[in-house]
Write a structure and sequence with these properties.
- By secondary structure, this protein is an alpha/beta fold.
- Helices cover about 60% and strands about 10% of the residues.
- The chain has 15 helices and 5 strands.
- A 5-stranded parallel β-sheet has the order 2-1-3-4-5, with helices on both faces.
- Helix 5 crosses helix 6 and helix 10 packs parallel to helix 14.
């Protein structure tokens, strides 16, 4: 669609069709026009809550504008509002020297780490660790950039002796979820909390009796609705930029927390496994 390809004149188009909108669609349009800068930072769930409309109404509105969905609409809107360089990183400027770029990137990561640590709910974290420590199987789901996080989690949790898997393919995720049951855990990872494949996998896993856990950066996201427990991350990244930067690091840090804590609860088995792994890996080194 033309408007989706060039991302031009989104606000102009909203004004042009405003008179033909239904009352609910006008509520969506009004919120966008009054909060244009804010919209690009909101998930569809957050938008719906702020504007007091249904998510389906927002989706239909975006389709009426000529977009495939809400995410495509936000990308087009951001292309009008956001300086192009900000799509690479929020804080940088064209004239920044490389050392300044490094300082800003590191500062953003450090701030995201601190903010995520402050978001941790001790009771939720303790419950998740207890669930994982007793689980006989843990499956990790992540698509796109989050697939690397799921694979890292699998790599770490192998050491605990718990049977685990990591899946990035949408079909494999739902097949895996369909085979889970009581005593198993499924962990879905998505910064936006809006990835359809991960959401569906967690939904199926939950229906089959597995405990579901989400790692996401957005409250009341579709993913968090399908999870029994949620660990929230934070970063100053916006949803119009698909490449995860700081959010990736805080997700990895949360996985490290879970791995270390579960390893402590399964200390004897984990230490025995670590010794076996070191002996096996030693033959791979010169």
């Amino acid at each position: 669609m033309a408007s989706e390809l060039n991302g031009q004149n989104v606000v102009v188009k909203i004004n042009a069709i405003y008179s033909s909108l239904s009352s609910k669609e006008k509520a969506v349009a009004d919120y966008i026009l009054k909060n244009t800068q804010e919209i690009i930072h909101l998930s569809i769930t957050e938008f719906a809550e702020h504007a007091s409309v249904a998510e389906a109404t927002i989706f239909r509105f975006c389709k009426r504008l000529g977009f495939r969905g809400y995410q495509a609409f936000k990308i087009a809107l951001a292309s009008e509002l956001v300086e192009p360089i900000k799509n690479i990183h929020e804080e940088i400027k064209e004239e920044d020297e490389v050392v300044t770029l490094a300082q800003k990137v590191f500062a953003g990561h450090i701030e995201a780490m601190k903010e995520t640590l402050n978001l941790l709910d001790a009771k939720v974290l303790e419950t998740i660790i207890d669930v994982l420590g007793k689980a006989t199987r843990i499956d990790f789901y992540g698509s796109g950039g989050s697939s690397a996080i799921a694979l890292d989690a699998y790599h770490k949790f192998l050491r605990t002796g718990i049977h685990c898997n990591a899946h990035s393919d949408g079909h494999q995720q739902i097949i895996s979820a369909a085979l889970l049951g009581p005593g198993h855990a499924a962990i879905g990872i998505s910064h936006s909390g809006s990835n359809k494949d991960v959401i569906e996998a967690l939904k199926i896993a939950k229906a089959n009796g597995a405990v579901t856990i989400a790692i996401t950066g957005h409250y009341k996201s579709p993913l968090s609705k399908e999870a029994d427990f949620v660990l929230y991350t934070t970063s100053r990244e916006t949803l119009f930029r698909s490449e995860a930067l700081a959010s990736r690091l805080v997700q990895l840090s949360l996985i490290d927390v879970l791995h270390v804590a579960v390893s402590v609860t399964r200390q004897e088995q984990t230490l025995g496994n670590l010794q076996k792994i070191r002996e096996a890996i030693s033959i791979k080194r010169i």
